TrEMBL record:
Protein name: Methionine ABC transporter ATP-binding protein
UniProt xrefs under SUPFAM superfamilies: ACT-like, P-loop containing nucleoside triphosphate hydrolases
GO-annotated biological processes: amino acid transport
PROSITE patterns tied to this protein: ABC_TRANSPORTER_1 (PS00211), ABC_TRANSPORTER_2 (PS50893)
UniProt keyword annotation of Cell membrane present: yes
InterPro entries to which the protein is assigned, alphabetical: AAA+_ATPase, ABC_transporter-like_ATP-bd, ABC_transporter-like_CS, ACT-like_dom_sf, MetN_ABC, MetN_ABC_transporter-like, NIL_domain, P-loop_NTPase
GO function term, MF aspect, one: ATP binding
Alphabetical list of SMART domains matching this protein: AAA, NIL
ABC transporter domain mapped to chain residues: 4-246
Organism: Leucobacter chromiisoli
Pfam families reported in the protein's UniProt record: ABC_tran (PF00005), NIL (PF09383)
Amino acid sequence: MTRVQMIGVGKRYPGRGKGSAPIVAVDDVSIDVASGEIHAVIGYSGAGKSTLLRLVNGLEPATSGRILVGDDEVTGLSERGLRAIRGRIGMIFQQFNLFHSKTVSKNVEYPLLVAGMPAEERRRRVAELLDFVGLGDRASAYTDQLSGGQKQRVGIARALATNPGVLLADEATSALDPETSQEVLALLKRINSEFGITIILITHEMDVVREIAQRVTVMDGGRAVEQGDVFDVFSDPRTETTRRFVSTALPTEPETGHLEELRRRHRGKLVTMTFRDGDVDQPVVFRALAERGVGVSIVHGGITDVGGRSFGKLTLELIGDDARIDDAIVALAKETELEVLA
Ligand code: ADP
């Protein structure tokens, strides 16, 4: 069981030209990842996500702050100390980073060789890992003969070889088609629940976060601009960056152009209601409308799952007598976050 603490971590690169300002890739980022947690780091390209991961496994030194993996401080370790700690941090990549000239089993065996494990033990461990990722029958295939999903499973088996307490995943499903992504995500979930491995994954795909992460950090311009429980952050985003991400994965209000289109087709009053798991009693909402003789059509939106809880926005057309509709709106506003679309 391994906790990962990043405390005020920064990384500066020298500026490109003579006299140019340094590039601040990571700026004073603090993330406390609990043991056994799946923590997602999201952000647009250039936000500093990959740099942050490279700092965690000591591939590059941080220029400020501290990083602890379990009880060990990564920042300030010698190359020898880093080699020892890297055995306890597995990593998987978007482009898999496999050896093309080696077979599947040789790829998985590699970190065990580096760690000096005896041959017989290596053979057993490789077989066990390949069985776990469902590639027991492809041990002697070359990686070029595998599909993307199979390659990532080899990457995962290799990352798990030395029994790490932490797995770092750098856009691990971004190069895969949706169905294969789902398989890989399911495998990551199993790794987390069966072995208690802490997972830090960076991604620009909101669906990945929604499906497997418990907590999330949103990065922008090297900084952590928002952080918390996935449901809390997604259902009530505080920054524009988060809002833009959330709108790609969750039901939202109709955008301006779409709203005009909806107005042409629907003559009644349009309202958007936010349904946050536990906060809203849906039967109460719909009863309030029925009791006042207000007709309802759902014209946009939906309800979806975020971190095992439901969240959604529904845009409704309310049809009927104006006074009754206004009365219903007052009643509904007491039950849910409600916005009348002007
Ligand atoms: P992300 O993973 O979110 O796309 P990166 O961590 O790759 O972001 O990059 C963050 C910023 O740091 C970018 O502006 C990038 O150009 C810069 N950067 C990353 N690595 C280096 C490097 N080795 N030298 C100089 N600048 C770098």
